[in-house]
Amino acid sequence: MTEKSKHLPHTEFYSTRSEADDSFYSVIFWTSALILFFWSLGYRGLWTAEGRWAEIVREMLLTGDFFHPRINGVPYFDKPLLSYWFIALIVKVTGRFDEWAVRLPSAVSGLLVLWATVSLGRQLWSARVGRTAGWILMTTYGVLFWARTGEADMEHLAAISIAVAWYWIRRKKFNFITWLVFYLVCFSGAQTKGLAAIAVPVLAILPDIIEKKRWRILLTPSHYLALMIGIIFYLFPFLCADLTNKSYQSSGLYMMFKENIIRYFQPFDHKEPFYVYFYYLPVLFMPWTPLLISIIPGAAGTLKSSDEKTKWLIKAVALIFLFFTFSGSRRSYYILPVLPFCALLVSVYMFKQDHLSWKRAVFSFQKGLLLTAAIIELLSPLIWRFLENNFGFAAPMNLKLITPVIGFLAIIPFVLEYISLDCFKGFTKNDLKAGSMIVSAVILMGGYFCCQQKNLEIYRTEKTFAENLKENIAKIPVKKIAFYKKASPNVLFYLDLPEYAGILKTPNSVSNFLKKNKGIKILISRCKYIPEFLPVFPLGHQKLPVLSEKTYPWQKLVSRKLAAWKFGINKKQPEDL
Fold first, then answer.
1. Tell me, what's the pLDDT at 8?
2. Domain residues of the chain, as ranges?
3. Which pLDDT score, from 0 to 100, does residue 519 have?
4. What is the layout of strands, in order, in the sheet containing 502-504?
5. How far apart are CA 207 and CA 197, in angstroms?
6. What is the pLDDT of residues 486-509, one digit of tens each?
């Protein structure tokens, strides 16, 4: 036994093999992360809330006002400013403003989340625990999905993960710099989305602070000074916004209070049952859900006998989960901050040398799940035929070709492992043959997010509608273009109008719009509103839209499709846009 191992509470966490090849597997790890997070990042059109970030930044760049977020000129301070500034900085530096620029901060934040998780695992247990947790986290549905989505959730998660990792790195050096960096990271995260970036790291480190009366480190002048600087840093953008434009009819500070404090205790929307995270967490943790579910009972049962670091991790996971569960407002992605800690928990228990027969059974089930997914992809030609015959869904040819290839590649790691038992052992350096599962998960999840989603993009029609509309309204003044009820931020971004478009709230306002403006006019609306304003159309005018989103037989939410009408057309000229 080495001198170092005498002081280790659980030596099973530390590899007895040479780790000289760590750099080789680190290269594989980070190369895989770059591919999964960045491949075809900007290929897909904006979806749902991404348009808010894209349009707010577009209007910031258009007006030069970076402190007062707007959508079509209407104040929208539901989220703080920092996530918008990240996108604006990328646009300024790269000179391009598209889906790639909107999503790049999330992808970079995904890398930071991985770094923090791997670093935390290495700091508290060993390099192999950290890297295995990184592999697991990298291939979870929740992290991959949000790392490739242009919103603030991954920046938020990155701040939380980095703050906790920093605490443990500096755990024995509690001074002003330690606390200052900790709070600056937390408050930066709060400036991207919300106060959970402060609450979650504090909850995560709380069990360690309480242990052995370590709370005394909080009662120091350096801690209070760092906290005050962090608070000032957080409030500064809000104060600048309030002081620089008195006509702006929204307060960032009030919206922060409403969206974080009021929503937590007295929710005004997103009211889901208290048990909903027992469903959302397993979904976000796919495809590693079986491992997580099997480990949670064992973690709770062995809490007293676990080493100090593992006890902290179990308590941190429990506190974070309870924090979001006790909130009155719940959504699937709110629970994202617990994912890095769940990945570490799975990795830690993967290397503990106990209950090996049970672990082998669980690992066999996990392998079976991944292998089943690969086989389904391999047999996808039969599935495509079934979907086309029964639902009218005709898969694109590229999707038909790539899907069985992904399935075939995902099966290869299991075949190679069967032929050579140590083939993928270097990925995790444990005896449970998890390496083949990791490689298969990388192929399956990467195949879906980097290739299959890309091939399904042809069935998303909002961007095509907006681009066709933009091409045909280039010579029409903005004052003659109006939306009914509300303007889609996605469409506004793609139209790239130099001014704010009109919003018509009632059928009477539509009638007035058509009467008072001479010349060609454009009305844009969701299909669900058509029955409201159709009766006020001028007599003899074509009732059908001249441009509308394409609808496919299997699509059910047809009411959300967009359509455009053209008015004031000379009878001798065609009505087509």
1. 43
2. 42-351, 362-459, 462-567
3. 85
4. 502-504, 481-484, 521-526, 562-567, 547-548
5. 18
6. 999 999 999 999 999 999 999 999
